[in-house]
Amino acid sequence: MDYSAIYAQKLCSADEAVKLVKDGDWVDYSQTCSFPQLLDAALARRSGELHDVKIRNAIAMVPVQTIENDPAGSFTYNAWHCSGLDRRYIDKGLAYHTPMLFRHCGTYYRKGYAPVNVAMITVAPMDANGNFSFGLTNCAMQELLDCAEHIILEVNPSMPVVNGIANDHINICDVDCVVDSNLPIPTVKSPSATDLDRKIAEHIFPYITSGCCLQLGIGGIPNSIGSMIAESDVKDLGMHTELMSDGYLDLYLAGKITNKKKKLNRGKGIFSICNGSRALYDFLDHNDAILTAPMAYVNNPQTIRELDDFVSINGCICTDLYGQVSSESAGTRQISGTGGQLDFITGALEADHGRAFLAMHSTHVDKEGNAHSNIIPHFTAGDIITTPRTQAPNIVTEYGIASLPGKTTWQRAEALIGIAHPDFREELIRAAEQQKIWRQSNKR
């Protein structure tokens, strides 16, 4: 079969390709680095011509033109999970959040809960067999494409080729249009660690031992832990994570991740989505030691439990004295999303030697400069509960670790108050007493 001829037949401009979109359609950009920059801009140029087109995406890394340039209100943007950019759009009333668990994202597509009329995604260049690698985004890509009525590929040579254990490519025969692009794949800079981040990391680090398998979130605390690992005697770590970031690149380059001790996918690092630096993307290109996998596999607690010696480290925003955790909102203001946090907490609890940590600073400062405790008596302001108290893991602040699994309400209150900022401990004790979760014999 002459795949080059088929490619040439389906090649068109972005403006021609987006003519497939009709009034009332759902258009899906998949997630993070699969975002189709040329196609998004071309679709925005149809503002006023189209009516009630819904766009689905997650973790936007560049300005979304169908939001930025839509004077006629033709488009409604919806985010599975929020980047800082998505959060600003939601704050302005220009976008909406779609609640989900990452492991169920593919199911939403497969069962028709998330319809797709036109899929527009960025992929790596076609190989000799007519296949395009999904590159940095596996996620729920196959389920998305399987239910799409039309598929448009934005082909970009800066997208690395990353092989997967499943669902890692699409063939030219299965698409409607291809559009060539030379725009750089978006990158993100890893946040710098603060002194508080390093103190929190010091509490978690003793639980990371040679041969364990790591899932790290994004932020200063995981970066601090990565630095400690790089300077330690810990070795032969494994990687099994929903999102691969530059923190993992540093550990690979330091020789700390070998995946030799993994009980599952031995010798292979596994991720589902990736964003970070250009150096990270270049490291992944044709790297046979690292594979992508669908989120339904990576985030499945039954998969995670097979890894046995598994350590999950993620961030959170706030917790109450019962162990309920909010990791995605401040009151009703959407900050991020549930994502895979609950997936990995559940899997780590099921794994024989698994451990899960949720880390946060003990306080935050508001716009007026007033400090507030991130450990509160109870949630009342519409905060979204990401991790229910029935699955609360180890909560970490700069003052220590509160291990919550199996603990009574009074034990939780005592443990959490023990890692709260000292300035707020007395008022938290008074609240615990009023809530009938403080034993008279509890230490003060």
Shape: globular
The strands making up the biggest β-sheet line up spatially as: 13-12-11-10-14-19-23-24
Say what the CATH topology of the largest domain is.
Glutaconate Coenzyme A-transferase
CATH superfamily of the largest domain: Acetyl-CoA hydrolase/transferase C-terminal domain
Largest sheet: 8 strands, mixed
Total number of helical segments? 16
Write up this protein:
- 28% of the residues lie in helices and 22% in strands.
- It is an alpha/beta fold and 444 residues long.
- It folds into 2 domains: 23-180, 3-Layer(aba) Sandwich (Glutaconate Coenzyme A-transferase); 195-434, Glutaconate Coenzyme A-transferase (3-Layer(aba) Sandwich).
- The protein has an 8-stranded mixed beta sheet, with helices on both faces. It has a 7-stranded parallel beta sheet with strand order 4-3-2-1-5-7-9. It has a 3-stranded mixed beta sheet with strand order 16-15-22, with no helix packed on it.
- Strand 2, helix 4 and strand 3 form a beta-alpha-beta unit.
- The protein starts with a helix and ends in a 10-residue tail after the last helix.
Give a nutshell description of this structure:
This protein is α/β, with parallel strands linked by helices.
Features:
2 domains; Glutaconate Coenzyme A-transferase; 16 helices; globular; 444 residues; 24 strands
Secondary structure topology:
Blueprint: H1 3-10, H2 14-17, E1 26-28, H3 37-44, E2 53-57, H4 65-68, E3 75-79, H5 84-91, E4 95-97, H6 105-110, E5 116-123, E6 131-133, H7 141-147, E7 148-155, E8 169-171, E9 177-180, H8 195-204, E10 213-216, H9 220-230, E11 238-244, H10 246-253, E12 269-274, H11 278-284, E13 290-292, H12 295-298, H13 301-306, E14 310-315, E15 318-320, E16 325-326, E17 329-330, E18 333-334, H14 341-350, E19 355-359, E20 363-365, E21 371-373, E22 375-376, E23 394-397, E24 400-403, H15 409-418, H16 422-434
Parallel strand pairs: 1-2, 1-5, 2-3, 3-4, 5-7, 7-9, 10-11, 10-14, 11-12, 12-13, 14-19, 15-22, 19-23
Antiparallel strand pairs: 6-8, 15-16, 17-18, 20-21, 23-24
Helix pairs in contact: 8-9, 9-10, 15-16
